[in-house]
Amino acid sequence: MAKGASKNGSEKVFGPDGIVSKFHDAYEYRPGQVEMAEKIAEAFEKKQHLIVEAGTGTGKTLAYLIPAIAAAVQGKCRIIISTGTKNLQEQLMEKDVPFLQKALPTKFKAAYMKGRANYACLYRIANSGHQPILDGIDDVDHFRIVRAWVEETKTGDRAELTSLPENLAFWNRINARSDTCLGQKCPEFEPCFITRMRVNAEYADVIVVNHHLFFADLNVRDNQFGKVLPDYSAVIFDEAHLLEDIAADYFGVQASNYQIEELARDAEALPVSNAVSAVSITKAVGKVLSVAEAFWQRLMPERQAEGRYQLTPGIAAERGDGMSFGDANAALAEALGRLEALVDAFSGEMVEAESIVRRLKQTRGDLAFITAQEDANFVYWLERRGRGIFLQASPVDVSALLNEKLFEKTNTCILTSATLATKGGFNFIRDRLGLPSARTMTLTAPSSFDYETQSIVYLPKAMPDPRSPDFTPAAAREIADILRMTDGRAFVLCTSNASMNALYQLVSSRIGYECFVQGTMSKAGLLERFRTTPNSVLFATQSFWQGVDVRGEQLSCVIIDKLPFAVPTDPLVAARARFIEERGGSSFFEYSVPQAIITLKQGIGRLIRSRSDRGVIAVLDPRLRTKNYGRDFLASLPRMRITSELDDIREILD
Hints:
Elements: H1 7-14, H2 19-23, H3 31-46, E1 49-54, H4 60-75, E2 79-83, H5 86-103, E3 110-112, H6 122-126, H7 136-152, H8 171-174, H9 193-202, E4 206-210, H10 211-220, E5 234-238, H11 243-250, E6 253-256, H12 257-268, H13 275-299, E7 307-310, H14 325-344, H15 351-372, E8 378-385, E9 388-395, H16 399-407, E10 412-417, H17 427-433, E11 440-445, H18 451-454, E12 455-458, H19 471-486, E13 490-494, H20 497-508, E14 515-517, H21 523-532, E15 537-541, E16 557-560, H22 571-582, H23 587-604, E17 615-619, H24 623-626, H25 630-636, E18 641-643, H26 646-653
Parallel strand pairs: 1-10, 1-11, 2-4, 2-5, 3-4, 5-10, 12-17, 12-18, 13-15, 13-16, 14-15, 16-17
Antiparallel strand pairs: 6-9, 7-8, 8-9
Helix pairs in contact: 1-3, 3-4, 4-5, 10-11, 12-13, 12-15, 13-14, 14-15, 19-20, 19-26, 22-23
């Protein structure tokens, strides 16, 4: 598609006799795909932004790739494609881009950039003998494989090590993440995999990244740290419903006990030849670790349950030894400063020392910002995961930041997903992300699926309030009845781990189908077991609401226990609600309901994945019928028949 693409031009590409049909084995004519491609070409031509909701079956990846390639090559500009999941990133680079390089008469170059932690660091691997990074025989064997691989690989991408466990214990000690990078002073800078990746990207017309890498770049762009990505004139965000939370992460500030422990370990491992200085550094490291332990204990006692908590003065625990949290905080800052001064003495002769000094300064500054809690535009919170304690300061509202750093500085931003509209419009997503109204077009691209004939929505006749103790037993009975009608073949998507586990226990003993539950194995392993086990049922939460694709009758039913409202006590959710209320708005109707609608649409989107799929969506939450806002949820879903009769479930599947 060229500049000023017309309907006729689109048909030449996507039509029955077009370029795509000649090369694509599974070609289907999709009017929504044509409409979406035309609108994207128009946005590039007019240098405007565009929000596109493109439901499953639209063919959205080709609909944005083809006009993007045309705009990049003809306009001699670079375009970034940013995805929300690794699966989509890999699909683009391994399937869609190679297909278009073969099919299109326009020749173009594409590059693939991942976050630095995905790549091996040649310098850290070469110097790993200086530090004890391996635990046990398995680690020794795995590291031997990594060493041999590094000699052969062209990319250094961890994904190539398919024979090794997904979570290599020592990978964080040998990867190329930015905080340990020595930059151009590194003796391995030229052959470095990050250097190679960046050089390759500089010559690309289209670069495929993920949202995390994109916002890591946006956060450091124009400051002293330079940039991660090459310059670009346009960005296409696929899975754009994820942008607000990811942006909040990367515009925020973080610190953790793991981070400080690793810093101390790296400082102690410096090859300092002066015995007196080495002993001083070792003592300073010991001091950092001891006062850090006191700091974390006062911030979050060991008895504190896992989860996220808002950081307030009252949350700091007293330990009965006369030291307040303020004292512990000051002691940690002083100990880090002392270690920094000792290590800095070697910065002139040791590039590793420069890196550690930089990291110590950053950590001290981040801790000071978080514990001071002086910026009213941020919410300050902490999280316990296992033995990890993570401190974070996150911007409450990212709309102004995104408008300033992204939308005002970029010619065209395309935001697309299967779930962006609420109540038939895009005001929610546009306002949350700060897209300027005057420069933003919108489109709802019709899906090629016929939801009215392929699916039904089942709403039980009578269910208790979701907050009632009677809800879970009633939901279990309904789920068992539904699964008997569908012969299993279902996802049961829950809004919490507690609900998931309770329903799994109650339902799995009542039905004659094999049941799986999230957490018992990896996500990929669970999906494979589900796909290959006839009539099975998978109980899941969170990550299974999106990015999961099971086609065919093996997944004939998606059951959702409750409307997926965000947890109101989550620090970031609560802060966003306060932000809206303080400005005279209604946080429930302006934030909670639209956010839940988008999440519900994601969950429902797991069901119909092809034109031949048929199935049932069951939502057990009675608020769809009993609350006025229930109409907003139903109005935002694809047009489907609604029933409360169990026999209708059997009928749609026959």
